[in-house]
Amino acid sequence: MFLRVEHTTHYRYDAPVGYALQQLRLTPKDRPGQQRIHDWTIEVEGGEKQLHYVDHHGNGVDLIAVHGGDAELVIRCHGAVELLTTDGVIGAHRGAMPLWTFLRPTPLTRAGRGVRALTAGLGRDFANDIERAHALSAAILDRLAYRIGVTDAETTAEQALGGEGGVCQDHAHIFIAAMRHLGHPARYVSGYLSMDDRTHQDATHAWAEAHFDHIGWIGFDVSNGHSPDERYIRVATGLDYRDAAPVRGMRYGAAQENLVVQLQVQQ
User: Fold this and answer.
1) Which of 41, 145, 191, 197 is most exposed by smallest CB count within 10 Å?
2) Nearest C-alpha neighbor of 210 from the set 243, 256, 245, 172
């Protein structure tokens, strides 16, 4: 399957910005036999590309500087990606980060009382660890309904579990925290999802991957209750959202921002 993406991120500031620096992780990963970029372009208005590099998770990163006097920043990504069905199986671990790194908790994915109770409630009657991981995914979605506006980028897995709902980022963090608690390396994935019933998407998507002996990495989309298929474009991976956020940065000055995202993903 070929998917075409048109993604615009538009920042408007109520006063000129003194200085800002943004990290963009918006270039999909190339992985032979699974995902191949046919063309991909990132265009910037109101800022300047300073540097492109590959980080320690194998993510393509662009640094964008916004110099004094600008009151808008527009980031446009567009391109086509070819995807093959793998039933969520990514396979053997690759890259500079050792596998044990993905057992390490982070502030967003630390397993506290809520996560430990969730895993204990799964029981032990499973044919294998993969079956248990799918049961965990279902338990998370049953416990935390998908609900926009009640969490934010700094909400931890434990805080989300104690709340009244969450989004794909929260589901991924809880799953990662629980799988690490169970002894499996786990990581966060950001990317694009082509929904069957629409072309215009509300936002980028997030899911999780866990590592199993003799198989490797397998993806779990808790929010949609299945493993990723050919409708999913993997863009960035990391220990949690902070490592894989599509756009993340800092700015100087007291200007307040308004963010508008427009996203189309279609065959």
Assistant:
1) 197
2) 172
Chain region(s) in the chain for CATH 2.60.40.2250: 2-83+247-266
Residue 80: its H or E element:
strand 72-83
How far apart CA 183 and CA 181 sit, in angstroms, is: 5
Among residues 156, 168, 166, 161, the alpha carbon closest in space to that of 115 is found at 161
Closest CA relative to residue 84, chosen from 202, 189, 239, 232: 232
* pTM of structure: 0.95
Of 91, 108, 94, the closest CA to residue 166 belongs to: 108
Radius of gyration of the chain (CA): 19
* Structure tokens belonging to residue 193: 């999802």
Residues 186-233 have pLDDT tens digits of: 999 999 999 877 778 778 999 999 999 999 999 999 999 999 999 999
Cβ-proximal residues to 127 (8 Å cutoff; 6+ apart), any chain = none
Relative orientation angle of helices 168-181 and 129-143, to the nearest 10 degrees:
140
Judge contact between 222 and 172, C-beta under 8 A.
yes
The answer as to CATH 3.10.620.30 being correct for domain 89-244 is yes
